[in-house]
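Hey, I was hoping to borrow your eyes for a little while. A protein chain has come my way and I'm curious about its shape. Take your time with it, there's no hurry, and the full record follows here:
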Amino acid sequence: AEKTGLILALGAWILKQALQQGRRFQQLCPEKALGLSVNISSQQIKQVDFCRDLASLLQETDNFPPSSLCLEVTESIFADVVAGDVIADARKLGVKIALDDFGMGSSSLSDLREVAVDIVKLDRKFLDQGQAVPHLSSFIGAVINLAHAAGLSVTAKGIETPAQLAAVTEAGVDNVQ
């Protein structure tokens, strides 16, 4: 979809559908603090009107609470100044931003203190290699501590076994997926 240019229309439709469904879930379970995470393409986030359109969508979906929405972006977009400005504007709306698949792209650990995000999602490959790489659990714990020092929440992705859950819980992760 990104290569053909369809991602803009498709992404807008997905975001609208997700917000509508998220609002329905919140109305069905008002006693729960249900949140919604949506992956956003780097092409979408670079659109100058993205935040204006997002604000409109939040209103159209029975005032979906912005604090209940988390937009997941990949680290490659932080090299783009326009995308950085759009992300800052989305955060001003009250929307959370998650840095998805951290650790598998071009970001460095020092980027954790400089990126304008609320959540860091550790790529599942950190755990996939857990048995093969000595001291990997210590390394994961250090990455989590660095993220926490930057005031970020950390989600470990790809948790599928009790052993993986125990390892990341012991390392101090905030959430698992």
